[in-house]
Design a protein that fits this description.
mainly alpha
């Protein structure tokens, strides 16, 4: 549950950073071409950060699924062993 909150906080942080950076760039006294270039760079950085976070979450979910699968297999083996002892 706490990992979900951490992920939500990270998304909120990244979104806030992107909005803040966009506003700062739009309000700064720069030429239009330079502002567009800065916005493009900020968007690429945001995209890369979000992609990295999604990859981290995918790996975490895969690891947890493997752990759960192992626990289920161990439970099945224990059950079968207990059934054999009582038969």
């Amino acid at each position: 549950m706490s990992e979900n909150k951490g992920g939500s906080m990270m998304v909120g942080f990244l979104l806030g950073a992107a909005v803040g950076a966009g506003l700062a760039l739009m309000l700064a006294p720069m030429a239009g071409e330079e502002t567009r270039r800065h916005l493009g760079e900020a968007a690429r950085k945001l995209k890369d950060g979000a992609k990295d976070r999604v990859d981290d979450i995918k790996h975490m979910v895969k690891d947890r699924a493997e752990e759960v699968g192992g626990a289920i297999d161990a439970g099945k083996d224990a059950f079968r062993g207990a059934v054999r002892e009582h038969v």
